Request: fold
Amino acid sequence: MAKQVRGRQPADGFSLLILAAGKATRFKSEHSKVLHRLAGRPLGEYALRTALAAGPERAYMVVGHEADEVQRTLARPGLTFIEQKEQLGTGHALMVARPELEECPSPTLVALVGDAPLLRAETLRRLVDAHRKARAAATVLTTYLDDPRGYGRIVRAGRAGRTRSKQESGYVRAIVEEKVCTPAQKGIREVNSGILCFSRAKLLERLGELSNQNAQQEYLLTDLIEIFNRHREKVTAFPVADSREVLGVNDRVELAQVEKILRLWKVEALMRDGVTVVNPEVTYIDEGVEVGTDTIIEPGVSLLGSTRVGRACALRPYSTIVDSALGDRVTVRHYSLITGSEVASGAVIGPFAHVRDGAVIEEEARIGNFVEVKKSRVGRGTKALHLTYLGDATLEENVNVGAGTVTCNYDGEKKHPTLIERGVFVGSGSMLVAPLRIGKDSYIGAGSTITEDVPPESLALARAPQTNKEGWVRERKHRKESFEPSPRSSAVPSTGAAALDIEPAKRSRDADIAARQAGSVTVIEVKAELTRAHVAKELGQKIRQTIGPNHSQVVVNLGNVTSIDSAAIGELVAAVKAAQDRGGQVKLSDVSREVLRAFRAANLHHFFEMHRHEADALASFGQAGASDG
Reply:
């Protein structure tokens, strides 16, 4: 049994039945109509909240299409669900609910459509009071429309009176659907809302007389009006003055129209409570959002879900805040997105910032343009102002993060944390490879890739050595001119200055890479730093050329290499991958600490098979030693 729902009740009590079984046919959707979102909530939640606020003794909801999902979404204490497995009409829904209605203690039952989001609880209570005073078998909630097309007309009996319509002076004789209206009936402006109040006993007495012998071939709730009239039972109408209260939502166009009304009501309520909304027409605030006084909301702002905004905040144009909490005096600059996060008082976010997934921005912190903060805590007074990614990180107070800094938190399998203690200065363009701890008051040199913990009050530098090639531009220009054909010949000369110019270079490059055989294994020894583009390219070519039908095992000895740049790493990865694709194996030996650090910074230390010494690598192939070749 459902629990009694608390609230104000008419003297004789009443219960409510919400009809929510139908599929959204005119929505052209596979989902239940009541699950479609409206101003941040499921459509059916509005009718449900209104029903419970009216204070019924019992509350029921008839579900059908997507019944399990509807129940999960709309379950509330005191609400009983009744499943209508076959949707054969609104009257059939009551027939399915009959066992529950027979046990219901209330003398009065209100049947309420699930798609009337603007209906007020007070209107439902007044409907029940009017029904009780009239001692009617049924009372129809109606309204007047200037354009009643598409709605069922209320046909009354009796003479005309001094009322809004000549029909209003009599009891309700019938509800006539638009497509079967006579020309005279089409002129009636009083329409059916789909909400009816019944004497429960009389409803149960006549419910079995419903038939599906009609144009829709369904059991229709409105047919009960004709049945009651046939038995000379009293049927009255209760008109509601504001027709918007009974607006139904039958398709996506009407959904948008009702959403516009709801959002405007919300904005107007906020403005009356001391919030400045510069342009309500282009501001989107969900029903459940809270905003403090003296906050200024500029055009294009969206405040969605369960967002809470404090006092005296400034929300600049086209910022979006979803399910987040902002303290007092927060500034959110243009085009910023905050989702599922907390921003403390006095913080500044944006422009073009993204704060998400449980991030916490503490007091007076600043998150600047094109900065993303994910699942991180940014301490009081800390600044990250330009082009930065902070993921799975904790930054204590007064940290300064330079432009282009990235916390490298993902190794391809799992996320790792970064801790930056108070007072740290991180230079621009730094890569912080997690897991990592940077001690308090330390400095990180610009352009560093930091892979190891930094002690407090230290300076950490991790850059590849800089190489200056003096005269390189002049030599390049000279070589280029030497290869250009003369006006008298289009062929490149095979002898002369050009040939003499390139031969020493060729001899020099041959000395950078040496190959020898160790049994069936080819050992390629690198004798120059891999920060020189031609060396990296030649190494890649040598690996590719070595792998063949009779040579599938290669050891690359890096004992003479102390520096490697990203281009060389990319060339080496491509060559090793090409060898693997052809059935070959490539192993690295004698890798220096500096080269290993570069591999780790690129998250590639797991990609390469590395051995401490060449002999170890050969042994892994089953070779005992090496011989010059």
